[in-house]
Amino acid sequence: MTTQAPEPTLTVDELASRAGVTVRTVRFYSTRGLLPPPAIGPRRVGHYGPDHLYRLALIEELQHQGMTLSAIERYLDALPDDLSAHDLAIHRALVATWAPDTALESSREELEKRVGRPLSDSDVQRLTAMNVLAPTPDGDAFRVDPGLLRLGVALLDVPIAHETIMTARTVLMEHARTAAHELTALFRDEVWGPFTQGESDPERVEAMKSLSAHMQPMVVQALVTAFQRSLKDELRAAFTAPE
Asked: Packing angle between helix 162-187 and helix 202-239, nearest 10 degrees?
């Protein structure tokens, strides 16, 4: 049975607020064809859905990485037409993986505007426990991990016990760290070592460092793809009744 996507219900003002951009930015992206047109409801009011929100987040992330609008257009044109909001979120996560680790400082009011919803004290505590937020000496401000923010806020509405989410996070972090360690050792021993052995040419060393940097997004995408397929197989085996 195919799950239908949620109906578009956001006005352009609500979409802009949820995405942390201006209405003018939304309209500009729409005129450039970067965002699909909204669904037109009663009184000719446009309504936007999750696919618009996540596509907008992807565009903003690509711009943050320094891509021009023309390059972003080419990037989006290369994506399949039937990508879901979930698929777009994964693309954004992959793009964000090769961004420098940066934390933002945000007030409670700015944070709520950024995520497009009020946050209770319990919500803030859960986000802090997930390392999405960290308190600052100023009691009204937080250090925010932008790469985890959307995921953390989405998890607030998942009907799973907080302890279960934290256990799942521990499992993921431990296995991710092991994979990163083993892949780094493989690259060091099989690629970096033979390439630089007996060589002192700075240009060769710089070329290898450049290759190392470019490999990161490819390795992340390979890991995400492998994990998605493995998880799908495991879920099918766990929840499909034997014939």
From this structure: 140
Do 84 and 108 share a domain, yes or no? no
Nearest-CA neighbor of 124 among 103, 95, 153? 153
pLDDT in tens, 2-29: 444 556 688 899 888 888 888 999 999 9
Q: Structural domain of residue 70, as residue ranges?
A: 12-96
Q: Nearest 5°: phi and psi at 71?
A: -65, -35
CB 113 within 8 A of CB 20: yes
Which one, of 19, 85, 17, 14, lies nearest residue 47 by Cα?
14
The DSSP bridge pattern shows strands 46-47 and 39-40 to be antiparallel
pTM (predicted TM-score)? 0.51
Q: Copy the structure tokens of residue 62.
A: 């690509």
Who contacts 164 (Cβ-Cβ below 8 Å, separation ≥6)?
A: none
Total domain count, the chain:
3
Centroid of chain to Cα 54: 9
